[in-house]
Amino acid sequence: MAFCVVSLFVLCLITPILHAAQYKDGERVEVFVNKVGPYFNPHETYHYYSLPVCRPPKVEHKSLTLGEVLDGDRMAKSIYDIKFKENVDSPKELCKVTMTAKDIEQIQEAVEELYYFEFVADELPMRGFIGHLEESGFLPHSHHTYLWTHLQFQFLFNGNNVIAANVSTSSRPPLELDNLEEPVDITYSYTVKWTETQVKFADRAKLSKSRFFQKSLEIHWLSIINSIVLVVLLLGFVIVILMRVLKNDFARYNLSDVGENSGDLDQDDYGWKIIHTDVFRYPPLKSLFCSILGVGSQFLALGFGIILMAIVGLFNIHRHGSINTAAVLLYALTSCIAGYVSSRMYRQIGGDSWVWNIVMTASLFSVPFFIIWSTVNSVAWHMGSTQALPYTTIILLLLVWLLVGFPLTVLGGIVGKNTATEFNAPCRTKNIAREIPPVPWYRSTPVHMAIGGFLPFSAISVELYYIFATLWGRENYTLYGILLLVFAILLSVTACISIALTYFQLSSEDYRWWWRSLFSAGSASFYVFAYSLFYYHKRSNMSGVLQTVQFFGYTILVCFMFFLMLGTVSFIASLYFVRYIYSSLKMD
């Protein structure tokens, strides 16, 4: 465990630190072309040079970090000749491109699908549309496509540092593509304007927030406050009601201490007390059960780690893909937690196939992830998207798991097995299981799952929109403190509803609470997936095979992570609750 804490600090230290690039007057400022793609499909991206545009004789790619590659970046040098502090007022020719009919058709399709491009200068992204589409009327219907052939670069500088960068496409009229006859020579040009500012380099992130993508986070605070108030009232209601019921139960079940006769005691011996000899009967499928707890604990640590790193400012617009790098490394480093928790619990409940338990723990998430990722990556590769990972990155990720993730899982498993203590149940378990009486439909497992999943989902329903808009849209999430608060509220609601549902189940004389407690709150993942369907069809304009496969493939993985996390919290809360009520009960 201490190793994981040390590794977190090491990760913070090795996170790329942004150094201020110093330029001399007249020194070349390198502009890298990156990617293009449909505006409404944020994860469908292609290399900029896949279009018939100006390019150098030999394409030279920039060395990228792991996070940038995972984010679909493929930066390459451009032929824009931009000098520090040197304005280019009159249009300067970049190149002439001879386009065939196929090239013109490709550009027209890009314009009709609202393709945008992304350039990077001094780690600052610049974005603009490839062209312009005009449609009007129904009868008669007009449809015109235009290509922006001129770009205007605008830079802010302070001293020898570049503070902000932007590109504009509307400074000159576009070229109409509809009436062109092949072959046609198209001339690309650009202008450059430098403006001095008093903003310091350390504060340039405030000016670097993209104005290209629309923003819609104005009501964020009000929505979060409403959600918090609702959840607090819900928690208070559950806690107060449950404590009053438990107090009455203890008073009834412990009547023997105030002189009640045995007949009266037998008469009152019903409800959750009567199953005290079965309530700690170990669940079936022990290895799978413990693996879920182990991997769920790992993702809890991973989630808190990512949020805390974001709060201290390790992720910003200048560190391209840094959150992806952190997620990969943290997942590998926290594998020891999964092995430790799973193996320790497995040993406590009498498991004897320790090796199989470790293998299942290591494979529980990695195997589904590999299957879904392989499908998504194959589709991206077939379509020529930059979202398809190069083989070098695939080998690197595989080595991270084989050399770091899996060994740490085994190491954590060894420590967990050797340090495991006895389960020490408050009640003795009989050899023969008690018959479970029939229960009404409203106390069945599906109903418990529906209720147990809805309440945690309601705690994050507001924040979920902003998370989806960040992951699958164009929003830039910055309220990490609020996210940490919502995460803590989510876990609190999960624990409370799990305790309440476990109590109702035990009161029905059903002692099979182990698996049900895990599924009760874990079922919130089904609500998240249902919300993803709503978001895809009603809150976004995503379309196309690649974007659809990516969205639903990775959403399934996120929902699976959600199930593991909340299921773990739900079981741990129920376990402590069951231990408490049965250790407080006075047995004969």
In short:
With 588 residues, this protein is of the alpha+beta class. The chain has helices at residues 2-14, 66-70, 101-112, 220-253, 262-268, 286-311, 322-333, 335-348, 354-363, 366-382, 391-419, 445-471, 480-507, 513-522, 524-539, 545-583, and strands at 31-38, 46-47, 76-77, 88-99, 115-121, 124-129, 131-136, 142-147, 150-158, 161-168, 175-176, 184-196.
Percent helix among the residues?
A: 40-55%
| Main sheet makeup | 5 strands, antiparallel
Q: Extract low-pLDDT stretches.
A: 1-18, 259-268
Strand tally, please?
12
Mean pLDDT: 85
The SS-based structural class is alpha+beta
Using only CA atoms, what is the Rg?
30 Å
Please give the alpha-carbon distance between the first and last residues. 41 Å
Question: Tally the helices: what do you get?
Answer: 16
Q: Approximately how much beta-strand content do the residues carry?
A: 5-15%
**How does the overall form come out from the CA principal axes?**
elongated
Order of helices and strands: HEEHEEHEEEEEEEEHHHHHHHHHHHHH
